[in-house]
């Protein structure tokens, strides 16, 4: 039945170029690369003696995850990486694409067109094992925003749309094109469909070099076949495609050009996929048969390979033998006579001395000798303004649809401000006739302002989980070169503004009129603006934290801690003159936005008002007196300056946010790499062989400079 479905798909494609490749993409490709000027733009990737070592956090131990891998991927071929779980497939893809974890080190050479290159930020596209998508957009919107972000500005909207539609068809997503992706409160498309959306986003631009980590996991055999077929068509179009694939069906296996079999980080086989189980010409024999493990007639070749090299079968067998002895004794499979561990060793040994291995080494040497074109960071073709505009629009739509992003906060803000309004209702200027009048006083207007600017702004922390989701999407798109950091920071700032304006406008208005703060339009405007600026600062602060601490629980704790400290030095819990001078007053209180907002708001509220004295016979007390003597506020500084300081803090935090992302991209991997290298040096493990941890743009720069 499944096979039948797959055949149908295959036959329906015969007339055309193959699924997913509209002629349009070809024009785009030509335009984009300007073939006459640059010449050959295909990507030839080679890796030689690739070893990846990871340091394990416990007592500085190290472990080789990959050992001495040699191989290549050529344009026009589809290379499949296969191996049992934990054999290092993802690690190999990470190593090739320059995205190894911070504790992993690469030795050996990875060359693109005979040169060292950094494949991050757009040179290669990489669909990783997890799908980070914006949950509130539909499939079509997701793909079409991605197209807007990256296709050249001069391409007409109808061409863009045609490309988007053809990509949707290429991934078989027509039926769910208008369904939302789904998030915590929206049930959306299925897991397999998400997988296909992630792939669609990368094949959209027809990258020259494409890595995919398990593109077919979670798909049934018909759609796995369909997706693999599309990928192969992409490869046939002159692109280089490398994908790791788990347990392919025999139809899918037949689509592979090259097969890279890994077990325990070592090569078991690398060569033509078909040569692994059948003789390709008269004077050669099938690799597995030669090595002593012929594929039984009725077994799917890929199942056979994985059966041979999955050492977990030893454990399974051992367990089963205890309970179901008879079954195993009857079989005459060669694999039952030896353990899988031995089979792997035999295959490793056999491969190392086989013609396949020599041929691979020869080919790698041949390819790396030719210094081909330096592929520029492909990524986005759109202008900076187009990127910022599209991102802002996309982000606005996401925020307006995600109930948890701002709407929930709006509700809570209104509820809380109504509470404030009723508790401090018509606050007035009357003071109790007591010696401690100023204490009561402080507790009314002062504590109201302090609550509004302390706790109400604090509630903005609630958006953090949504920021973290945004950051994940950003990270994926950034590493694939969809847009730059600046465009992201700008769009994020702009799109948040309307929502924060609405929230702060409504809550400040409720609070202002219910409490009856200092009457007058300019006082009202100041109050609204001050609340807006403060919430914006919190938002910016939390974004900066999200760029460093990408986990929402840890991020909320960090953010709450920082704001708690700022609140302490705001001048309410301890009066400004009482705050200990070293550190807490200078500089901490000046760094705290709470301090500035309270200084401004106290002036805004009290200046010009007259307050009742202890007894009605005594003259009224002017607000300025209270400001100076009770709140210890500098009355010579205009409240507008205080507001200006808060606004400039927004800018500062946004810059910090930008810098943090840059630091994370460039400096942190280097520092971590350095520390781990030192640790390995102490353990005397060939330190010179280790190169830096990836994601350093230094490689690219060095190469371009040499040119
Ligand atoms: N940074 C790292 N630190 C520690 N161990 C690591 C690291 N990276 C990979 N490993 C280990 O290396 C092995 C290979 O991992 P990898 O993710 O490449 O496997 P895989 O073949 O992709 O498996 P799967 O099919 O389950 O995705 C695993 O045992 C893993 O625990
Ligand atoms: Mg993996």
UniProtKB/TrEMBL annotation:
<feature type="region of interest" description="Disordered">
    <location>
        <begin position="1"/>
        <end position="20"/>
    </location>
</feature>
<dbReference type="GO" id="GO:0009651">
    <property type="term" value="P:response to salt stress"/>
</dbReference>
<dbReference type="InterPro" id="IPR017871">
    <property type="entry name" value="ABC_transporter-like_CS"/>
</dbReference>
<dbReference type="Pfam" id="PF01061">
    <property type="entry name" value="ABC2_membrane"/>
</dbReference>
<feature type="compositionally biased region" description="Basic and acidic residues">
    <location>
        <begin position="1"/>
        <end position="13"/>
    </location>
</feature>
<comment type="similarity">
    <text>Belongs to the ABC transporter superfamily. ABCG family. Eye pigment precursor importer (TC 3.A.1.204) subfamily.</text>
</comment>
<feature type="transmembrane region" description="Helical">
    <location>
        <begin position="488"/>
        <end position="515"/>
    </location>
</feature>
<dbReference type="GO" id="GO:0016020">
    <property type="term" value="C:membrane"/>
</dbReference>
<feature type="transmembrane region" description="Helical">
    <location>
        <begin position="448"/>
        <end position="468"/>
    </location>
</feature>
<dbReference type="InterPro" id="IPR052215">
    <property type="entry name" value="Plant_ABCG"/>
</dbReference>
<feature type="transmembrane region" description="Helical">
    <location>
        <begin position="524"/>
        <end position="546"/>
    </location>
</feature>
<keyword id="KW-0547">Nucleotide-binding</keyword>
<feature type="transmembrane region" description="Helical">
    <location>
        <begin position="406"/>
        <end position="427"/>
    </location>
</feature>
<dbReference type="InterPro" id="IPR003593">
    <property type="entry name" value="AAA+_ATPase"/>
</dbReference>
<keyword id="KW-1133">Transmembrane helix</keyword>
<feature type="transmembrane region" description="Helical">
    <location>
        <begin position="640"/>
        <end position="661"/>
    </location>
</feature>
<keyword id="KW-0067">ATP-binding</keyword>
<feature type="domain" description="ABC transporter">
    <location>
        <begin position="45"/>
        <end position="289"/>
    </location>
</feature>
<dbReference type="InterPro" id="IPR003439">
    <property type="entry name" value="ABC_transporter-like_ATP-bd"/>
</dbReference>
<keyword id="KW-0472">Membrane</keyword>
<dbReference type="GO" id="GO:0140359">
    <property type="term" value="F:ABC-type transporter activity"/>
</dbReference>
<keyword id="KW-0813">Transport</keyword>
<feature type="transmembrane region" description="Helical">
    <location>
        <begin position="552"/>
        <end position="575"/>
    </location>
</feature>
<dbReference type="InterPro" id="IPR027417">
    <property type="entry name" value="P-loop_NTPase"/>
</dbReference>
<keyword id="KW-0597">Phosphoprotein</keyword>
<dbReference type="GO" id="GO:0016887">
    <property type="term" value="F:ATP hydrolysis activity"/>
</dbReference>
<keyword id="KW-0812">Transmembrane</keyword>
<dbReference type="GO" id="GO:0005524">
    <property type="term" value="F:ATP binding"/>
</dbReference>
<protein>
    <recommendedName>
        <fullName>ABC transporter domain-containing protein</fullName>
    </recommendedName>
</protein>
<dbReference type="Pfam" id="PF00005">
    <property type="entry name" value="ABC_tran"/>
</dbReference>
<dbReference type="InterPro" id="IPR013525">
    <property type="entry name" value="ABC2_TM"/>
</dbReference>
């Amino acid at each position: 039945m499944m096979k039948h479905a797959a055949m149908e798909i295959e036959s329906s494609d015969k007339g055309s170029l193959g699924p997913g490749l509209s002629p349009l993409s070809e024009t785009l490709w030509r335009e984009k690369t300007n073939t006459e000027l640059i010449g050959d733009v295909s990507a030839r990737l080679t890796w030689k003696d690739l070893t990846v070592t990871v340091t394990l956090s416990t007592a500085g131990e190290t472990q080789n995850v990959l050992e001495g891998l040699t191989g290549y991927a050529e344009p026009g071929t589809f290379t499949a990486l296969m191996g049992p779980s934990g054999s290092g497939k993802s690690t190999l893809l990470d190593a090739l694409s320059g995205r190894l974890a911070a504790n992993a080190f690469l030795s050996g050479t990875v060359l693109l067109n005979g040169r060292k290159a950094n494949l991050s930020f757009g040179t290669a596209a990489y669909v990783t094992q997890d799908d980070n998508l914006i949950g509130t957009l539909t499939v079509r919107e997701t793909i079409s925003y991605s197209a807007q972000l990256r296709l050249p500005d001069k391409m007409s909207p109808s061409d863009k749309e045609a490309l988007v539609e053809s990509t949707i068809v290429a991934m078989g997503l027509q039926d769910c094109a208008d369904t939302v992706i789904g998030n915590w409160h929206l049930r959306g498309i299925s897991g397999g469909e998400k997988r296909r959306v992630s792939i669609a986003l990368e094949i959209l631009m027809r990258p020259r070099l494409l890595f995919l980590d398990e593109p077919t996991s979670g798909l049934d055999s018909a759609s796995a076949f369909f997706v693999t077929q599309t990928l192969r068509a992409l490869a046939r179009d002159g692109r280089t495609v490398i994908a790791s694939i788990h347990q392919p069906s025999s139809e899918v296996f037949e689509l592979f050009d090259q097969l890279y079999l890994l077990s325990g980080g070592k090569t078991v086989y690398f060569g033509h996929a078909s040569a692994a189980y059948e003789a390709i010409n008269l004077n050669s024999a099938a690799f597995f048969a030669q090595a002593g493990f012929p594929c039984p007639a009725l077994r799917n070749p890929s199942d056979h390979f994985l059966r041979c090299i999955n050492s977990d079968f030893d454990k399974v067998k051992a367990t089963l033998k205890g309970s179901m002895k008879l079954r195993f004794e009857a079989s005459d499979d060669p694999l039952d006579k030896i353990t899988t561990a031995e089979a792997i060793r035999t295959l490793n040994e056999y491969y190392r001395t086989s013609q396949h291995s020599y041929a691979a080494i020869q080919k790698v040497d041949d390819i790396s000798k030719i210094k081909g074109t330096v592929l520029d960071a492909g990524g986005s073709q759109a202008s900076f303004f187009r990127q910022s505009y599209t991102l802002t629009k996309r982000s606005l739509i996401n925020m307006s649809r995600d109930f948890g992003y701002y709407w929930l906060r709006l509700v809570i803000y209104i509820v809380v401000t109504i509470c404030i309004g009723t508790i401090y209702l018509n606050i007035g200027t009357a003071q109790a006739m007591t010696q401690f009048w100023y204490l009561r006083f402080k507790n009314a207007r002062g504590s109201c302002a302090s609550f509004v600017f302390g706790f109400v702004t604090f509630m903005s922390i609630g958006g953090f989980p949504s920021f973290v989701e945004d950051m994940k999407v950003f990270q994926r798109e950034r590493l694939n070169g969809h847009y730059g950091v600046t465009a992201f920071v700008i769009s994020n700032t702009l799109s948040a503004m309307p929502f924060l304006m609405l929230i702060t406008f409504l809550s400040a208005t409720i609070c202002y009129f219910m409490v009856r703060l200092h009457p007058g339009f300019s006082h009202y405007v100041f109050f609204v603006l001050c609340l807006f600026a403060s919430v914006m600062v919190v938002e910016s602060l939390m974004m900066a934290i999200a760029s460093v601490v990408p986990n929402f629980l840890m991020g909320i704790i960090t953010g709450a801690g920082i704001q708690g400290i700022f609140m302490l030095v705001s001048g309410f819990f301890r009066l400004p003159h009482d705050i200990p001078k070293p550190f807490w007053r200078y500089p901490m209180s000046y760094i705290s936005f709470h301090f500035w907002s309270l200084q401004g708001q106290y002036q805004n509220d009290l200046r010009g008002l007259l307050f009742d004295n202890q007894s009605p016979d005594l003259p009224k007390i002017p607000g300025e007196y209270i400001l100076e003597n009770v709140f210890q506020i500098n009355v010579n500084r205009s409240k507008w300056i205080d507001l200006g300081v808060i606004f400039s803090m927004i800018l500062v935090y946004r810059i910090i946010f930008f810098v943090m992302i840059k630091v994370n991209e460039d400096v942190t991997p280097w520092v971590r790499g350095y520390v781990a290298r030192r640790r390995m040096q102490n353990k005397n493990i060939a330190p010179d062989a280790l190169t830096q941890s990836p994601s350093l743009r230094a490689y690219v720069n060095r190469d371009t400079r040499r040119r």
